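queue> pop job 88
queue> type: inverse folding (structure -> sequence)
queue> payload:
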C-alpha cells in the first residue's frame, strides 16, 4: 500500500480479511500448543517411513499405516492452522487500522500517536491529540522498540478513545507511504493491542 489513505479506505482495509491475513506476523500464526499433536504425528510418520526405507521394506504393506498417519496428521495440521487464523481474525479488536500522527522523527525511527476508539479514522482528532501530548511522554519514547505499541493514560474527554504511542522504522514508514512527510499522518495496523505496523 503506497498512497495516502482516506478514512473510508482505512475502514475498508480493516474489514478486508485477505489483506489482514497477509499482514499477520509469522509468530502469531505459529505460536500455539494446538500444533503439538499434528507435528508429533508428522515427524513420527516421516521417521517411520525413513526407517522402513533403511530396512528395505518401503515397498511392502508395512508402510501403509505410516502413510495414512502422515495424511491424517497433515489434514489435522492444516485444520488447526485454519481454525487459529479464523479465531484470531474474528476476535473483536484483534486487528485495528488507524491513522497515526508522528510526535518524534529521528534518522532511524518514527514515534507516532494513534487512537483505537471510534475516532481512529478521524485525522483531525489524531492531530489535535498529538499536539496535546507530544512532550508529555518524552521519557517513554526511548524505551519503545520498532513495532511496539503502548497505551497512554491521558485526560482525554472521549473515554472510548484509548491513545497509544508506537515506534516504527523510518525506512518502513517511507517505503509504505511514498511521498510521506514527517508532518503527515500515516496508516497503521494494530495487532492484539501490542504490535503496530505501518501500512
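queue> result:
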Amino acid at each position: 500500500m503506497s498512497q495516502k489513505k482516506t478514512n473510508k479506505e482505512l475502514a475498508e482495509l480493516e474489514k478486508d480479511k485477505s489483506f489482514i491475513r497477509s499482514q499477520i506476523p509469522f509468530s502469531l500464526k505459529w505460536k500455539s500448543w494446538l500444533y503439538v499433536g499434528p507435528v508429533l504425528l508428522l515427524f513420527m510418520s516421516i521417521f517411520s517411513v525413513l526407517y522402513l526405507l533403511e530396512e528395505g521394506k518401503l515397498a511392502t504393506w508395512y508402510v501403509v499405516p505410516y502413510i495414512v498417519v502422515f495424511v491424517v496428521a497433515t489434514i489435522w495440521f492444516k485444520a488447526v492452522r485454519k481454525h487459529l487464523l479464523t479465531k484470531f481474525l474474528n476476535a473483536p479488536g484483534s486487528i485495528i487500522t488507524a491513522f497515526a500522527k508522528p510526535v518524534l522523527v529521528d534518522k532511524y525511527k518514527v514515534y507516532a500517536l494513534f487512537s483505537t476508539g471510534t475516532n481512529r479514522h478521524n485525522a483531525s482528532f489524531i492531530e489535535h491529540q498529538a499536539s496535546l501530548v507530544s512532550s508529555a511522554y518524552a521519557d517513554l519514547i526511548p524505551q519503545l522498540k520498532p513495532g511496539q505499541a503502548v497505551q497512554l493514560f491521558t485526560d482525554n474527554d472521549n473515554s472510548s478513545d484509548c491513545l497509544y504511542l508506537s515506534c516504527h522504522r523510518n525506512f518502513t514508514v517511507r517505503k509504505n507511504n511514498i511521498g510521506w512527510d514527517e508532518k503527515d499522518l500515516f496508516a497503521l495496523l494494530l495487532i492484539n493491542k501490542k504490535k503496530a505496523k505501518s501500512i
